[in-house]
Design brief:
- The chain is an all-alpha fold.
- It has three domains: about 30 residues, no CATH class; about 160 residues, Orthogonal Bundle (Endonuclease Iii, domain 2); about 100 residues, Hypothetical protein, domain 2 (Endonuclease III, domain 1), CATH 1.10.340.30.
- It is built from 17 helices and two strands.
- Helix 8 packs across helix 9.
- The termini are far apart.
- The protein binds iron/sulfur cluster (SF4).
- The site of iron/sulfur cluster has 14 residues, from loops.
- Iron/sulfur cluster binds next to loops.
């Protein structure tokens, strides 16, 4: 049999002729075109065929990205498994006894990935269009909800547009505008003082360094990090009561002091993620890991949480504790049963604490 001369891969520019070239000069040429790297046909076909309807808006031109997209899709849509009681108790004992740094870093890394996949909608919930507006909104958010602040700020921002406007504000009028956010006298003092200081020291422009921000009236370290992270794009960890409670509950740190918590968490989380992780932790606390009754049986972090078992571990009981606009997706991710009662339905049956979960809360001094 006369072999076909193969052109393409073994010949051409590189001059490496195929071993048949010299002996069969007249045989027909079969050209083999090289495919671009990373576009193996069979793999693409298989992946595309296995995904009908799975990726909304999937287009053929996306085919090159499908293998990665498919893996991601599988990971973010597969319901998580709850840990066994023995595994949960073992992790709780390990953390309470002082977890090795490497083990903690790996566990935190897994929890960070879970948080990102569980709360892809995490963001700053205060409405603002300029750094100064965010500073004002953050001052107003003390001891009240972001929703309440967002109700007040449209009128406020329309009336006072810049630092100089706040510096020259009529106190009574300002107090009236912000009254519904609570502590309105103190907040009015802070807003007027902030306006005056920004005009005097920074020519009316809000500074963008931590040291300069914390030197301004009404702005503490937490507010400064909110402004840096969300208005200036400079990574910052926002440690409030809820953030501190959660990271202690998860065994990320045992520190009580917010600044020490910030440094401890900063050492575990890549700097570029500081801002978004702050939002994700807060979202998880609001929706799943509540202070009194966390929904452990419907939690995507359960496998790596040393406090698993602090709340109900039965998926049906835990599911009623999950709150928020993404509740259904959270329950699906956590593998909760389909027929769960609506959020807020009383959970009657007492849950059995997983051995060791209380030790972690005690060791980390979680309130
Ligand atoms: S809900 Fe339970 S398992 Fe989930 S993070 Fe909170 S304490 Fe841990």
């Amino acid at each position: 049999m006369v072999p076909h001369r193969v052109a393409g891969r073994g010949t051409g520019a590189r001059g490496a002729a195929c071993r048949y070239a010299s002996v069969t000069p007249a045989v027909p040429t079969l050209r083999i075109r090289r495919r671009p790297r990373g576009t193996r046909r069979c793999a693409r076909r298989r992946t595309a065929a296995s995904l009908p309807g799975s990726l909304p808006g999937w287009k053929r031109r996306d085919a090159g990205r499908l293998p990665v997209a498919a893996r991601t899709l599988a990971r973010v849509t597969t319901p998580r498994r709850l840990p066994s009681r023995a595994a949960a108790a073992k992790l709780a004992r390990r953390v309470a006894a002082g977890e090795p740094a490497l083990g903690r870093a790996r566990r935190v890394g897994r929890m960070l990935r879970e948080l990102a996949e569980t709360h892809p909608d995490a963001h700053c919930e205060l409405d603002f269009t300029t750094p100064y507006e965010l500073a004002v909104a953050t001052i107003l958010s003390a001891q009240t909800t972001d929703v309440r602040v967002n109700e007040v700020t449209p009128k406020l921002f329309a009336r006072y547009r810049a630092a100089a406007d706040y510096a020259a504000a009529d106190r009574t009028e300002l107090e009236e505008l912000i009254r519904s956010t609570g502590f309105y006298r103190n907040k009015a003092t802070s807003l007027i003082g902030l306006g005056a200081a920004v005009v005097e020291k920074h020519a009316g422009l809000l500074p963008h360094t931590l040291d300069e921000l914390v030197a301004l009236p009404g702005i503490g370290r937490k507010t400064a990090n909110v402004i840096l992270g969300n208005a200036f794009g400079i990574p910052g960890i926002t440690v409030d009561t809820h953030f501190g409670r959660l990271v202690r509950r998860w065994g990320w740190t045992a520190e009580e002091d917010p600044v020490k918590v910030e440094h401890a968490v900063g050492a575990l989380v890549p700097k570029r993620d500081w801002t978004i992780v702050s939002h994700e932790v807060i979202f998880h606390g609001r929706r799943v890991c509540h202070s009194r009754k966390p929904a452990c049986g419907a939690c995507t972090l359960a496998a790596d949480c040393p406090s698993y078992g602090t709340g109900p571990t039965d998926p049906a009981q835990a599911a009623v504790l999950v709150k928020g606009p993404s509740r259904e997706r959270l329950l699906r991710l956590a593998g909760a049963p389909d027929d769960v009662p609506p959020s807020g339905t009383p959970v009657d049956a007492p849950h059995a604490l997983v051995a060791g979960a209380d030790q972690v809360e005690a060791a980390m001094d979680v309130p």
